């Protein structure tokens, strides 16, 4: 009898999490019971460890997760980074300059000695303030203010992130799109309707994160779940692709199956019906 080792991997916001940004009690109960039966389960998210770890604390994740759109592979059980994709020093400075020229403030993440640190020059919007406060409270490490992004944009830089209106972020996205050695995600936020622009190394992606997990842990198949545009690369690297009922049309077109929505425990119910088949 051939035993197929499968990895089940899910996006968080809009997929595993309901519209209030939480794992429902029913979803947690179903998935944990399947993990006890032997399922390999983890997540791939645009979130950092600041918010991803506490929000998934109710699930017994048993495979390293993918953070910040593939920037890092992180072992939750051991609280350590396994892989980090750093942005080239010169490109970090170039991106910082793009933000400066467009008079746009952002957060810049660096990983130093296995600790993720977030820097900013100024918090001048309610969206940025909410973003920082929620993660500071969850992670017990305040964000750090600096005089200029160029002071911290070096070879330890892994991520630039900003949220705002489409029209104010679009010029930065266009400038970054022609910056060699980098990649970005630009999409509408699930909760606020604002847009996120996230910039990272060209080596980082959810797809490459899946390749790493498949290779290092010997998975024969990868089954993934998603809802938004930044899940498309993850879909392209997975053997079976499931979009939740609330997913964007572009992702549904790529999907092999459509599950119930994130507010109807879509992932958990799909797993309960299909695990082991």
Structure, explained:
The chain has helices at 12-16, 25-37, 49-55, 89-101, 126-139, 166-176, 206-217, 232-237, 249-254, 266-274, and strands at 6-10, 40-43, 65-67, 72-75, 80-84, 107-112, 115-120, 144-145, 157-164, 182-188, 195-201, 221-226, 240-243, 257-258. The chain has 277 residues and is α/β, with parallel strands linked by helices. The strands form three sheets. Strands 8-7-6-9-11-10 form a six-stranded mixed sheet, covered by helices on one side. Strands 2-1-12-13-14 form a five-stranded parallel sheet. Strand 13 (240-243), helix 9 (249-254) and strand 14 form a beta-alpha-beta unit. Helix 2 (25-37) runs parallel beside helix 10. It is globular and about 55 Å long. The model has no long low-confidence stretch (mean pLDDT 90).
Radius of gyration, whole Å: 18 Å
What is the residue-averaged pLDDT? 90
Oligomeric state, counting identical vs distinct chains: single chain
Helix content: 25-40%
Quantity of strands, as a count:
14
Q: Which outline best applies? A: globular
**Binned strand content:** 15-25%
The biggest sheet amounts to: 6 strands, mixed
Strands of the widest sheet, in order across it, are: 8-7-6-9-11-10
Helix and strand sequence: EHHEHEEEHEEHEEHEEHEHEHEH
Uncertain ranges: none
